[in-house]
Write a structure and sequence with these properties.
- The chain is α/β, with parallel strands linked by helices.
- The protein has one domain: 3-Layer(aba) Sandwich (Rossmann fold), CATH 3.40.50.
- Helices cover 31% and strands 22% of the residues.
- The protein has helices spanning 36-44, 86-101, 121-132, 152-163, 181-192; strands spanning 5-11, 24-30, 62-67, 71-75, 106-114, 137-142, 170-172.
- A seven-stranded mixed sheet has the order 1-3-4-2-5-6-7, sandwiched between helices.
- Strand 6, helix 4 (152-163) and strand 7 form a beta-alpha-beta unit.
- The radius of gyration is 16 Å and the shape is globular.
- The two termini are 18 Å apart.
Length: 195
């Protein structure tokens, strides 16, 4: 587990990035209400590091969290929330696209997918875009605890089939039970060491 984590800044333009030392960055991307903030809080073992909300679409900026003074976790704006205005959705999209395309510090993208809902059309588009950018992608299934243990294989297979991946390519997680959190920490650690 990480020892020290702190919120640094929220930005809407890459030029305002706090990362002047060119530390490694790991971004968390997913549709609105997928549980990104809760996942980051579970990952850092801090209940209120990332702001959570019952209302989807709350994250409208790139939020930077400095971990152990050595790298950043970045919470990206959620996508696909219908009540967000078209102009706002375009703005969110351009922020994320600029961040993904023009960031030499970005080591990996964690694409969060709601385990119960499965990959949405927006998730599939984002997955293809990340592949197009030749980015290291880690698929993280959130809210796994909402599905009974006996049904999890069925839901997992649905996700694997839609993304055309094998079982070892996705991580089942829960911010409540902390399922899979250690595995994500381990992946970030190995990426941070350049493995």
């Amino acid at each position: 587990m990480f020892k020290d984590s702190k919120y640094v800044i929220s930005i809407t333009n890459l030029k305002d990035s706090p990362n002047k030392q060119y530390l490694n960055e790991f971004v968390f991307i997913g549709r609105s209400n997928v549980g990104k903030s809760s996942f980051i809080n579970a990952l850092t073992n801090k209940k209120i590091l990332a702001k959570t909300s019952s209302k989807p679409g709350k994250t409208k900026t790139l939020n930077f969290f400095l971990i152990d003074e050595t790298f950043y976790l970045v919470d990206a704006p959620g996508y696909g929330y219908a009540s967000t205005g078209v102009d706002q959705r375009v703005k969110f999209g351009s922020i994320i696209e600029d961040y993904l395309r023009n960031n030499q510090c970005l080591k990996a993208a964690f694409l969060l997918i709601d385990f119960k809902v499965g990959p949405t059309k927006d998730d599939l588009l984002m997955f293809e875009f990340l592949k197009f950018l030749r980015m290291k992608i880690i698929i993280v299934c959130t809210k796994t605890d909402k599905i009974g243990v006996t049904l999890r294989k069925k839901y997992q297979n649905n996700i694997l089939n839609k993304l055309q991946l094998n079982e070892s390519s996705v991580i089942l997680t829960s911010s409540v039970s902390k399922l899979g959190i250690d595995k994500v920490v381990e992946i970030i650690g190995s990426c941070n060491l350049g493995e």
